[in-house]
Give the backbone structure.
Amino acid sequence: MEPGEETVARGEGDVNLSPRREAYVAQHLDAAAGEILAADARWFFRQSLSTPCLDVLASAHGSRLVTTSGHRLLDFHGNGLHQLGHGHPKVIAAIEQALAELPFSPRRFTNRFAVALAERLCGAMAEGPWKLLLAPAGALAVSTAVKLARLVTGRHKILSFWGSFHGASLDAISVGGEPLFRRGIGPLLPATEHIPPPTRGRCRFGCSDEEHSNCLAYLAYVLETEGDFAALIAEPVRWTTVELPPPGYWRRVREICDRLGVLLIFDEIPSCLGRTGRLFVHQQLDAVPDILVLGKGLGGGVFPLAAMLARAAFDRFPETALGHYTHEKSAPGCAAALAALEVIEEEDLCTRASRLGAILLTRLAALRSRFPLVREIRGIGLHLGVELRQADGSPAVEAAEAVLYACLDRGLSFKIGGGNVLVLSPPLTIPEKELEEALAILEAAFEEVSDTP
Ligand SMILES: Cc1ncc(COP(=O)(O)O)c(C=O)c1O
């Protein structure tokens, strides 16, 4: 296995199939919760990353999850949708009002919520005009983006990065690059090609300059010599393992795409709406895409809602069903999104994400000097990664899981990315007191794991 590939191989998230899960269940679940967990296992298909489940939730408010057995956890995971924390009162009120007014908006009709949301999102984009389509899941919006790119260019190939994630549907895993999702499924969507990502410090092309010129040259080579590419789809920041792009990288990619007539699709499904310190991540990266995919927190952390924004000039296919999803223009969903955007602005959550992210980065750097296991701290806004490696440089997968469970025991939940990166993604609304609480838990967990031979 080559440098940088090991995280790609382990892919998304942490796995619950572990003896530590059983120890957690024995310690934290009362009899009633144990029964619900057993019933869950009876009815739900097992699948990696989520089932069998860990615990049974009773409530989620702000940064906090509370289980039916009374265990309280700070939620630094939230499936990447809780920019506003769980159950923000303005989002709930907006949903309740829309539910009372227009619980469902059938195809052929529109509604004031959908139109206001479209205007708001498209209006926030540079280099307008823009138009959009809504979808009830991120993967479905990615699908729409791929279809549109093919139609607009008249070409069929899509280029993407190994290790990337764009959703769990068959077309999304085809453009995605995570073995966990692709392996054993059989033939995937044809004409989806992949190249290695430009991972800082560990890239496959041995780039020695900041911009990763060798990576860029390879990308241009593939697009140019292979030809027939409709689009390059990418997460502007590799989310699961918190890999920041090389400086100037996306500006250079934008130039290559422009030169070759290839569309640039940015998947900002988990990273949009303030988490990184701006409404959209690409605003920090010096490149405006041709198609932008948003999701997760777009539904205010409550409703399943995603969007595909694209340049208005691409609106040339009235005879084609680009999206056509049952819940496309949900009034409660759009009301939730409008409320979320309003809260982000009113509470200045972009600035808050940058400020708290900087504090967290400094505090985590202090962990690095205390615990040799901590190899690197990376972050953008309030999305941070703590990479764990053994003294010989190998990924500290076992230790990462031990730290996770030591934190779960003490009341902090987060995700492990790529097997050895602790991914900390708290609500942007988190009170500083709770941030301190989480840091204290993390520190205690590291002490416990470092003391264990
Ligand atoms: C980068 C990225 N793209 C796409 C998706 C898929 O979104 P959804 O689960 O809403 O289909 C996700 C979800 O985790 C994601 O992180």
